[in-house]
Each structure stands twice: as structure tokens, then as C-alpha cells.
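User: Thanks for the earlier help. One more: DgyrCDS13901. Can you show the sequence and predicted structure together?

Assistant: Of course, both are below.
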Amino acid sequence: MHFMKIKRRRSCCRPLGVSCLLCSILIFEVIDYLAWGYTTFWIAEPLYKFNWPLDVDLVDVVNNVLEKNDPDVEILNRYDDLGLKASPEKCSSDIDLLFVVKSAFNNEDRRQVIRSTWGSSKFSGSYNLNIKTIFIVASSDNEVHNRKVLHESSIHKDIVLFSFKDRYWNNIYKVFGEYEWVAANCSETKHTFFADDDCFVCSLALFDYIQKSSRYNFNHLSIGYLRERNPCNRKALSAWQVTLREYPFQHYPPYFTGGSYIFSTKYVVRLAIGMRYTKFFRVDDAYIGIVAHKLRVPLKHSNRFIFYSRSYDPRVLRTMIASHQFADPSDPKGGKKLSKAEKEKLKKEEAERKAKEEEEQKLLAEKEEAERKEREALEAIERKKEENEERKRRKWQLEELAEVWDRNVQNLEEFARIARSKAKWQRYMSCEWPDPTLLPEINTYINLWREDKSSSNIDTVLADNKKCLNLIEELHTILRVTPENEIIEEQKEQYNQTIVELEEILMEKLEKATYNVFLESYKFIDSSSLNLERVIENNNLTLACWGNLAKNARIKSYNFEEIGFQFDIPKLKLDDNADWGIRILVTNYDHYSHHCKTFYPRIKPKAEPTIIEEEEKKEDESDEKEEGEAKADDENEQKVDREETLDLDQALKDLESGEGENKDEEKEEEEEKDKEDDMEEEPLQIPTPDIPDFEEFDGAEDVIDLRAFQILGGIYHFNLCQLPPQPRALQNCTLTKVSNPEELVYVPYKAHYEEPKEENGEEKKKNGVELEEQKKDEKLPLLITLTYIKTIANLHNKNSALRFLLSLPKNVYFCEEPQVARWNEKDKEWSVDGFYEHNFEEEERRLTFKSLSFGTFSLVQDAHINMPFQTWEIRPRDVNHVLITVIAAIIEVEIEVKNDCCALIAPSDKEELQELIGKFLPVDQFITRMKAAGLNLFPESDSYKYVSVPDKVSNYFFLSF
């Protein structure tokens, strides 16, 4: 019992001991406040005597630094001393708002929440604001934490990591570091929002505030939760005590607190420079206020920034921009429970507030709409005046351009006329060959050449070939450059007929020369193969002949290395005594394409409108017209009578008052003035030439449209010929059987081609099924079996397709794999039918294919492969000297134009174009040589049908003028 009594006494003393302890602490706090806080407040200097080192005019120092002048004072704080370990990329110039968040190294979760909520750019799209978020972090004593922060920085690219340790009193270094980093890397952003990672930011309210500030040109923002005349904490026991030695003044200058505030970046740059020359103070919020006070930066208070933690309240969220922490709405301790009456009151206040806001927004919208309409009306009037002035200026420019254009066209026509006259005179004075434009001379030349039997030697034909080609080219040039008004249709027909006759006799002479080569095969027998092998060439053509004089069946193919042409030897079922050979004639000219109907533009004839006469309708219309005219005459007479009466009365009144003449004059002057104001300058109407409509290509799929494709590399004549009877040497003489007529005999050859089959599993299975069916059908009638055997035998007797290997010409640049075409003499067209198994080796520039027959071949390429151009430009070099650069679809070309000549300058690394590089030629010859070399950069009148070019929008096109 005694023990229990003692225990009860002890338990009763506990409340008394706690109370005594609390009273002692309270008494000590009062004494501390009276002894230190209250006493030192009166000892400290008042704020109007504020002076903080450096004791200089900080505004002048900052201005000198911004003007890149060295100030007269030394820097106290250096950014390099902070030790930057990680930094994101610099801000682009289009950033409207930069979030700068101070964060602890171990607050990775908070940083991630900020990235996905108010620091994310996905919420700023509707406000047309570009935002960026960075985090300011100091290092930890633990290297594991530092590595985590560096890893996080490498992932998100938004962390600025410094090497100083993360301590509470080191926040001043964070502040200095964040201001210096923004000034160095994001000085072109509009606004900067500073916050701590424990702040709650309503980003939508912030974006709305920024947008309204931009609308009213508030480019100097500095708002937050402002503390004014805040006394210093002098308590000795307080962790935030500031001694008189540290800060000798009673109050701090105005400063933002609560961890969040917003500055225009112009102020941030000035504050960052000011911090370099201002002594650090460990209370970071007050330090920013000190620097702002020295720089005379105005700080404005806003109730939308909340310093203390608030309980959840929807009314606060609608107006708040930022808060230092915020209570969780799901936590019952976060705020008190509202009564029913309070809830009703809140609803009523909310409804009234909404109605008031809607009314204000409506009035504001009406005001803005009225201002917008007035502004647009003024802008429309000003724009109309500017457009009228632009039309006047444009009209004058077009008139001047038209004069210059007409003058240049006349000069060009005169220049061309003089050039044609000189060429005609030089042609008249030349006696080397006949004039192809004079029918007697050219007919005499053709007849004499045809009757000259001695000119059938191959060497003589090659010499005459150059003269004939010059005559043909001269006629083509005359037809191309002569204007339509200087040449008649009869002359055109005569020149075209002369061209055809010259081409025919040239081919006759070449075939006769080939016949003579085959006739003298024994003179050119190869000692190793005992077959005819001969190659003759000049600048215009190459003739290669091969004959099977040895009749060696083991020779499968032959390669003419001189011309880069390899072919299979056909297996022919001819007479054993028959000799046959192969003639390969490669010409650098094309005498076939211009005979094709697709060679020239196919202009579609204009359809004439059909006029349908309706006599009955005309009679009815004429009767109705007469009746209407009669009624109109009666009405006009009555109207004239009324107007004359009214005019007479008005004239009498004006005479009486004496003001009639003055009113008429004033009225006329006002009308003339209004007409002058409303009159718009009519632009000069330059007639646009009509674009001719061209017919569509209506040929077969395998026929080449020469408006879309071009022949490159010359023409290949590959023919199988029967050798003429060879001479036989006897003892004292040589016997030769004479052929009548003495001309080449072409051996017909038509091959059969089967697609190669892949031996896959399905086909093997199919073949197995066919074998089983054949076994089942062994009892077929004898007649069907014999018919099947005969068909198989005929199939094996057919000729096989010929394989060719062709090296591309060395002076032609192919932009893509060329196609092979065969000339159809009957239909006068090029066709790609009859060619199989194409294989193009781009590096070796070799083309392999199979053909079903001999004939005349050519290589074909898309004529518009380098169209449309990507870019082009003309750069002047000197007088009458420019450089044209064209970046085409595949190749980049530079052309130098000097006076009336052109030269290809680039690409100089293409071996195929070396003959054109740096060689100046007249424009007509230059275009011809460029096209022949595979560089067709010269569109024709119908090229728009083969090149897909987006049409210009007519409204914008004409607005540009």
C-alpha cells in the first residue's frame, strides 16, 4: 500500500514539472527578445541609411558591363568558383517562359512530378507559349548521389549541377549560380520564373497572366509575394539569427519570399551582373532584395503568390499563381470542414463571381471587337493606299520592262539575221561542197555520188561520210534557226526531202562498202581463229565485221574489244557450204528518230465551236424585243417629262435664292475629289501567251515516246549477213563467183525465249504431279502422242535468244540505267519489245541483255530525268559574263556564259563530260552537245506534260506583283 501511494504521488507531479519547463522556456524567450531582439532593433541603423558593399553606384557598373566596358571596381563573386559539373543546352530565342527550380540532390521524385505537371510544355500549347524547365542542384557528400544526379541529367538534359555542397546556408550560392546561368545561356528568353521544388504552381493561371502581360506590352515584370520593412531576426537562440556585424540595419529592403517569383529576363541579367559586385548575405531572399534595391529594380506585390501553406480551396486555385506548399485535399487535416450554410454561401459567392467575370469578359470582348474593327478599317485604308502606290510603281516598272524587252528582242532578231546573212555569204563563197539549199546543185551531187562505183571502197566512203553529214547538219540547222516568216512550206518540204535522200545514199554507200569488206574476207583472216575479223573507225562511225570462215561450231561468242561489244554466235541451220558473217555498224548520229511521228511536238488542233441556227427562236425574240422597245420608249418619254418639270422648278428656286450655281460647283468639286481618292491605278495588262495544248501519246506500251525519252550514244546496227562467194586460188589464177546484184544479203533470224524457272519446292511438287499424270496417260491414243512429240521437236529446232554485252559510250553520261530499243522500219518507231534479262553494272558501265533478233538498236534515257530543278542562280562575273548554277534533280551543273558563247564548268570530275569542260561554243551548238552528252537541262514547250511541277496559286502569284 505504501508503494502504491508513493507511485501515485510521482504521477501527480508530472504535469507540474512539464508546466514549469514550459514557463521557463517562455520566460527565457521573452528575456531573449527583450535583451537582443528589441534592444538591437533600436541600436541598428534605419533603412534610409542603407549602404552595402561594394559602396558604389551599382547601376553605372552594370551599364558599363552591358556596354562591354571594364568597370573601375573589382569583382567580388565569380561564377567559375561554383564549379559547374553539368549543364543543359542553351535556350533558343523563341522561349517565352523559363522555369528555374532550386532542388536538393535527393529530391528526384519532386523533379519528376514537376516535369510531368506544371513544368511540362504540354499545358502551354493553347496559350501559344514556348516554355523550358531547368533545375539548380548542388553536390552531395556521397558520390553515389552525385552519380545519380549526373545520370538523371544525361537523360532529361535539364539539370544544372554545381560542385559546392548542398547546405542550407549555401542557398546563396545556388541563387548566384542560377542567375548567372540564365544570364549566360537564356538571356534572349522573355520571362524567368524562379521557384523551389516544394512550391505548388498553377501553370494555367501563370500562362494566362503572361499572355495578358504580352498583350499590354508589359515587358518589365517583377512580381511575387513582397515583404516590405521586414525586421531582422536578432534572437540569440534562433537558427536564423542575424547579428549586427552581419547586417547593421533595422529592416531588409523589399524582397520576394515564398520561394517563387517572376522576373523579366532583362532584370535577371542585370541582377546577375550586380551580384558579382555585391557582398554575399546568407539570407538568400533578402540578398536578392538588397541587389534589386541597389539596382533600383522595382518589385511589385501580388496576392496571387502565397507564402504560407494553404488548405485546399477551389476559390484559391482559380486566382493563385504559386504557393509555398499546398495542403492535400484528401487529407482531413488539411482544412476545416465547412458547414452547410458556409457551403451555400460559397456557392452563392462563386455564382456571383462567375456572373461578374462573364459580364466583364463580355464588355471587354465588345471593347476589343470594336477596337479591332476600327484598327482593321484604318489598316484597310492604309493598305489600299499602299497597294495603289504599288500598282503605280508596278505599272511604271512593267512599262519600262516591256520597252527593254522589246528592244532586246529586236536586237536579238537583228543579231540572228546578221549571223544568218554572214553564214549564207560564207556558204556562197565556199567551194568545198555543193549548197544543199539549191536543188540543182544537190541533185547533181547525189546522182554523181550514186553513179560513182569507185567510191564504194570503205576508206573512200568514210571520207565522203563526213561531207554528207555536214550537208545534212546544215539543212537541219537552217530548218531550226530560220524564222517562220522567212521560209515557206515548199522550201521546208524540199529541205526535208533532200535530207532523206542524203541519208539513203549514205546508207547505201556504207552497205556497199561492207559488202566489199566481206568480199575480200581472205585478206583479213585472223591467224589464230581463221575467221574474218576487222574493225574500221573514224570520228563519226565504227564498222566491225566478223565472218565464220573456219566454220568452228565450238565458238560460242566473240568480243570486239575496240568498240566494247560482245555477242553470242548464233547457231544457224544453214547450208554447210554457206558462209555468213556479222556486221556491227555504230554511228554517232541518228538518222532514224526524226522520221518517227513522236519526234516533234504534237499540238492539238483547236476545236471550232458549232453554231446552231434557230430561225424560229430568233423571230420570236425579235418580236418580243420590238414590243419591249415600244414600251420602254413610252416610259422614257413620261420620265423625261417629269424630270424636265422637276428640273425647271428647281432651277427657278435656285435663281430666286442665287445659290444654284455655287451648289453645283461645290457638288462637282466634291465628286471629283472622291473620284480621285477612290481611283485605283490600273496595272499594265501584259497579254499572257496562250499555252498550246498537246496531244497525248497514243502508241503501244512498248513504243518509245520521243517527247519523253531521248536516244543517247548513237545507233547500233547489228546484222546477220550472208557472205558473198569467196575467191578460190588456182595454180595460175583466182576464180570468183559474181553475185547479181552485188549487195548485202541479210539472213532472217527469229529466236525463241523462255523465262528461267526457279527450282523451288512448289515447282518440284508440280513436276512430280505432272510425271504421275503422264504415267496415268500412257495409254493415250497413238495419234495424240505423235503430235506431242512433233511439237517438242519443233520447239527444240527454234533459235535461242542472243546475249549481248555492251560497254556504254565514253562520252555520254547516263543518269540511270538505260533502256534498249529496236527500230521498227515498217512503223517508223522505236520499241522496247523483244529484250530480256537486262543487267546493268554501274561501276563498269556495262549493259547485258538478250534479244530475239538482229536489227538496229539504241540506248534510251528519260529526257526529263533532271527536271524539275531544285534551285538555280545567276551570278555576274564581268560585263556580258555570268555564271549559271543549276542544282537539278540528279546532278549539279555550272555553266559559264561569255558574250554569245557558253561553256560547261562543272561537274569537272565526270570523265564522260571532259570534252565539254571549259570549251566555249555558240548557244545552239552548246545545247546540242549537252543533250548528246546526256545532260538535258533545256525544257521544251511540252515538257510540262512529262514533269510534275506544282501549279502556282494564282491569287498569291499575282499578289507578288
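User: Great, one quick takeaway?

Assistant: The radius of gyration is 50 Å.
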